[in-house]
Amino acid sequence: MGAKIFLVGAGPGSADLLTVKALRLLERADIVLHDSLIGPDVLALANPKAALIDVGKRCGGKAHPQAEICRLLVESGQTGGVVLRLKGGDPMIFGRATEEMEALRAAGLAFEVVPGVTAAAAAAAALAASLTRRDISRAVHFLAAHGSEGGLPPHDWAALAATGGTLAVYMGVRTLPALAENLIAAGMSPDMAAAAVENVSLPTQRQWRATLGTLPTQLAAAAPAGPVLLLIGEALA
Q1: What span, in angstroms and rounded, lies between the C-alpha atoms of 205 and 217?
Q2: Radius of gyration of the chain from Cα atoms?
Q3: What is the CATH number of domain 5-114?
Q4: How far apart are CA 122 and CA 229, in angstroms?
Q5: Which of 57, 62, 90, 156 is catalytic?
Q6: CATH class of domain segment(s) 119-236
Q7: What pLDDT tens digit does each residue of the chain (237 aa) get?
Q8: CA–CA separation, 48 vs 136, rounded Å?
Q9: Which of 93, 95, 126 has its CA nearest to residue 196?
Q10: What's the predicted TM-score (pTM) here?
């Protein structure tokens, strides 16, 4: 469709996990609006003449409100150059892509979305643990454990506890004690297999295997500083 604006997934962290298309677009970009968690190894692959603009937020921080990011994206798109909105993981999984696509449509600007490797897939690879397993886990549920109000969103805990699938939990370190408490109260066993991966795919990656009942204590003791992906379900056992 002749778009010059791209919402691009940069993957979970390692530059090796960029898609070929993402790399090619980085090499020809004029402007790159990137999340704060996009690492220097990925940004080093961008066109040397490109303007690199950090528009990221971490843990709901207010340094760059979403409305401001949308405004910058539209203004950049109106320059006529090749514009990349570079997002960690996949743009369509907890990437706030909807607001940015709506802003571009309202401005009459064409765009294209380029998928990336999401953190749940990378964490499963790091643990060598499939998210699905015949006769045990036939579903995977992606959950955000940090809502716009700063706390744990009001999920249907009974439905999640009864799903029989794997839960992939994003942004869940701070709310993990409450998450575990709600799932256990809804009927999930405290002995349910659980795992966590920090800084997945990067040299600083750390991982923990535990149970739903013990993982909150393990992570509290480890005090991870980087982004953490949580996995819960029988397929991890």
Answers
A1: 19
A2: 19
A3: 3.40.1010.10
A4: 9
A5: 57
A6: alpha beta
A7: 456 999 999 999 999 999 999 999 999 999 999 999 999 999 999 999 999 999 986 544 455 789 999 999 999 999 999 999 999 999 999 999 999 999 999 999 999 999 999 999 999 999 999 999 988 999 999 999 988 777 899 999 999 999 889 999 999 999 999 999 999 999 999 999 999 999 999 999 999 999 999 999 999 999 999 999 999 999 999
A8: 49
A9: 126
A10: 0.92
C-alpha 7/C-alpha 103 separation (Å) is 13
Residue 41 falls in the annotated catalytic set? no
Please confirm, yes or no, whether 49 is among the known catalytic residues.
Answer: no
Intrachain domains 5-114 and 119-236 with the same fold? no
Question: Is the CA virtual torsion 117, 123, 128, 129 positive or negative?
Answer: negative
Domain boundaries, the chain: 5-114, 119-236
Choose the catalytic residue: 16, 21, 35, 135. 35
Rounded distance between C-alpha atoms, residue 88 and residue 172, angstroms: 16
Nearest to 155 by CA among 163, 164, 165, 145: 145
